[in-house]
Specification:
The complex is a heterodimer. Chain A is an alpha/beta fold. Chain A has helices at 3-17, 26-39, 45-53, 57-68, 79-95, 113-124, 143-151, 165-171, 183-186, 220-231, 270-274, 285-292; strands at residues 101-106, 133-140, 153-155, 172-175, 178-181, 189-193, 206-211, 234-242, 255-257, 264-267. Chain A has two domains: 3-68, Chemotaxis Receptor Methyltransferase Cher, domain 1, CATH 1.10.155.10; 79-286, Vaccinia Virus protein VP39 (Rossmann fold, 3-Layer(aba) Sandwich). In chain A, a hairpin with a 2-residue loop joins strand 4 (172-175) and strand 5. In chain A, helix 1 crosses helix 4. The longest helix of chain A is centred in the first third of the chain and has 17 residues, at 79-95. The model of chain A is unreliable at 280-293 (pLDDT under 50). Chain B is α/β, with parallel strands linked by helices. Chain B has a domain at 32-47 and 57-117: Rossmann fold. Chain B is 40% helix and 19% strand. Chain B is built from five helices and five strands, in the order E-H-E-H-E-H-E-H-E-H. Chain B has helices at residues 11-23, 34-43, 60-69, 87-95, 108-117, and strands at 3-7, 27-31, 48-51, 77-82, 100-103. A five-stranded parallel beta sheet of chain B has the order 2-1-3-4-5, with helices on both faces. In chain B, helix 2 packs parallel to helix 3. The longest helix of chain B is centred in the N-terminal third of the chain and has 13 residues, at 11-23. Classes of the chains: A alpha/beta, B alpha/beta. Chain A binds chain B through residues 70, 76-80, 156-157, 160-162, 164-166, 168-169, 174, 177, 212-213, 216, 243-245, 262-263, and chain B through 85-87, 90-91, 94, 100-103, 106, 109-110, 113-114, 117, 123, 125-129.
Chain lengths: 293, 129
């Protein structure tokens, strides 16, 4: 790929999705965009770029979706779901005993494996949540991905990655070569389209936020901006879960790591948070970054 | 080193499975059918059995039943690996004492995930994205 084309695509992706590709990601771009170009009847990346520059908005959306969609699987990495079962939910059960409600946000819900894994984990808790109001909001940038998540339909290949066979038997129904998650679990989740670069305060406040393997694609200023805005959507005694390669350390003091629980964070002292200037950083990462320093 | 008995009547499948299971750190023994597999188990119980369903002489399900009634036969972790991908077969296998179930076609990631699930392979540190 020639470098003006690469630079153009980098800039486009940055503007549209916040995706921050480093200079050495040509292979990634090519491997994901070449099939898309071919599908659109174009000969290759140069043609694709030309068409994008011509302002084809449908094509721009496809490019952004192709680059921001991640492969995922049920109970990915396992550890965060152990934290959820062993640390997060026992505390939530105590702390919300009077209110008997819990709100969970999957901020990069992708094709649904993560929110459905959480739904299954909650079901596995048995009667502990009887009479509770449980809300799981799963958001993703890509409409296409959300449609798949909503359908809850997975291939034989997908249901064998991370999902124990007992859970498959218990929570899925087989239809030919595919497996669909039960209506009861589907009903536990609301799927919504959302760009993390934009305002998400309308989602309300959450007890638990899963925000895994999405911030790694953003530059540092954008990360800081998103963390600071996430801090305003989380209960003071809530929990945030990040991906294995992600941390708040060195970026923001709005969250602090939980000792001996890798990937698990809690909001920092509310007084520290109050001292933080409220920057409505909608698509203004730079401003927020400066304010955060 | 842990031992995995790979039971399948297809030599190609055994070869593919051997490569995957060896890469996970197992010593592999092959058997073409249930009877041959039982002979191996009588000699020395393996830690793991990767088990096809449909085979001549004795099929995987019959083998499983016989194995589980043998002295020490409750020890091996048995993971079915079969083209029988219907829920009826899965339910029957799990009820018959299988530990996990792989629907063919399979790959290294699936075998690894299932072996981790039953504790045959330790989970690595979280995979970075």
């Amino acid at each position: 790929m020639n470098s003006p084309d690469y630079e153009y695509l980098r800039k486009l992706l940055k503007e549209r999705s916040g995706l921050d590709l480093s200079a050495d990601k040509q292979y990634l771009l090519e491997s994901r965009l070449l099939p898309l170009a071919r599908k659109a009847g174009l000969s290759g990346i140069p043609d694709l770029v030309q068409k994008l520059q011509g302002g084809s908005s449908a094509l721009i959306t496809s490019v952004v979706e192709a680059m921001t969609t991640n492969e995922t699987f049920f109970f990915r990495d396992k550890v965060p779901f152990d934290h959820f079962r062993d640390t997060i939910m026992p505390e939530v059960l105590k702390a919300r005993a009077a209110r008997r409600s819990v709100r969970i946000w999957c901020a990069a819900g992708s094709t649904g494996q993560e929110p459905y894994s959480l739904a299954m984990a909650l079901k596995e808790m048995g009667g502990a949540l009887t009479g509770w109001r449980v809300e799981i909001i799963a958001t993703d940038l890509s409409q296409e991905v959300l449609e798949k998540a909503k359908s809850g339909v997975y291939s034989q290949f997908e249901v064998q990655r991370g999902l124990p066979i007992q859970m498959l038997m218990k929570y899925f129904k087989q239809t030919g070569e595919t497996w669909q998650i039960n209506p009861e679990l589907r009903a536990m989740i609301q799927h919504r389209q959302l760009n993390l670069l934009q305002d998400f305060s309308h989602l309300g406040t959450f007890d638990v936020i899963f925000c895994r393997n999405v911030l790694i694609y953003f530059d540092q200023d954008t990360k800081i901006n998103i963390f600071n805005r996430l801090a305003r959507q989380i209960e003071p005694d809530g929990f945030m879960v990040l991906g294995a390669a992600e941390t708040v350390v060195g970026l923001t003091d709005t969250f602090k790591p939980v000792a001996d629980r890798r990937g698990l964070y809690r909001p920092n002292d509310p007084r520290a948070a109050a001292a933080r200037p409220a920057v409505d950083g909608v698509a203004a990462p730079r401003v927020a970054a400066m304010a955060g320093r | 080193m842990k031992t995995c008995l790979v039971v399948d009547d297809s030599s190609i499948v055994r070869k593919v499975a051997r490569r995957i299971v060896e890469a996970l750190g197992f010593q592999v023994i092959e058997a073409e059918d249930g009877v041959e597999a039982l002979v191996h188990c009588k000699k020395a119980m393996p830690e793991a059995v990767l088990l096809d369903w449909n085979m001549p002489v004795m099929d995987g399900f019959q083998f499983l039943g016989t194995l589980r009634r043998m002295p020490g036969g409750e020890e091996p972790k048995v993971v079915f690996c079969t083209t029988e991908n219907g829920i009826d077969h899965i339910t029957k296998a799990m009820g018959g004492g299988a530990n996990e179930y792989i629907m063919k076609p399979f790959d290294k990631d699936i075998v690894l995930a299932k072996f981790q699930e039953v504790g045959l392979v330790a989970r690595e540190e979280e995979t970075a994205a």
